[in-house]
Design goal:
By secondary structure, the protein is α/β, with parallel strands linked by helices. It has one domain: Class I glutamine amidotransferase (GATase) domain (Rossmann fold), CATH 3.40.50.880. It has eight helices and eleven strands. Strand 10 and strand 11 form a beta hairpin.
Length: about 240
């Protein structure tokens, strides 16, 4: 049986408890053994982290020590999946650059705030995480992110939707969902999920369900020995 860890907390405006409950239901429906905690103390001991098939962070802002981030990084590098959404993963632990490197982006703005209407455009229709899902419209925060060019982008949204200082730079396609690798681990992120109701049904929910499953499945085929080789090459960051 696959084992998943969900840890939630941080800014209450993102309803982390409700979002965590959605993730827990998805994973339990898939037969996973799910541990849910409202503390980042679960990152303090590296050994138990490596026993999980998946880690799901739901922490907007907040702080994480360098040591705790290293513990998560080393678990993921050896095959544990990492998956999450919105501010709970890519606006988490803003001062921790290792976290940003591992997750593939950092939030910087959401022009217009909540309730902005925009289209999510699927860019990789052949990927197992998006096959059969068509472009769809949402009304929620539109995340502007500083994004790692190494990410495999699955969906985008067009900026600017709301005129602001960035608008003079012209239109850009901002990633909404992507996959990436961190050593032997699979990483999935989706920028939707400002409130729980944004991801509880519909295509956004299905995208996240598939992303969680994909990230969790990577542990079974990971080769920790390859991660050990990589670990000796670039320990300084």
């Amino acid at each position: 049986m696959a084992k998943a860890l969900i840890t939630w907390g941080g800014w209450d405006g993102h309803e982390p408890d409700k979002v965590a409950a959605i993730f827990a239901a998805i994973l339990r429906d898939a037969g996973a053994d799910v541990t849910v905690t409202d503390s980042v103390a679960c990152f303090d001991d590296p050994a138990p982290l490596r026993e999980f098939d998946l880690i799901v962070p739901v922490w907007t802002m907040s702080k994480l020590s360098r040591e705790a981030a290293v513990n998560v990084s080393e678990a993921v590098a050896r095959g544990t999946g990492l998956a999450g959404c919105h501010g709970g993963m890519c606006d988490a632990f803003r001062e921790n650059v290792l976290w940003q490197f591992m997750t593939g982006a950092n939030w910087v703005a959401h022009p217009g705030g909540d309730g902005v209407g925009y289209r999510v455009q699927i860019t990789d229709h052949d990927h197992e995480l998006t096959a059969g899902i068509v472009d769809f419209d949402v009304s929620t925060e539109q995340y502007y992110l500083h994004v790692d060019p190494a990410n495999h982008v699955l969906a985008t949204t067009r900026f600017p939707t709301i005129p602001w200082y960035h608008s003079v730079n012209g239109p850009v396609d901002m990633p909404v969902a992507w996959t990436r690798r961190w050593g032997e681990g699979r990483v999935y992120y989706n920028a939707l999920g400002h409130k729980a109701n944004v991801i509880e049904t519909g295509p956004a929910h299905e995208m996240l369900r598939r992303g969680l499953m994909w990230a969790m499945a990577g542990k079974a085929i990971a080769d920790p020995a390859r991660a050990e080789v990589l670990a000796t090459k670039g320990a300084h960051f």
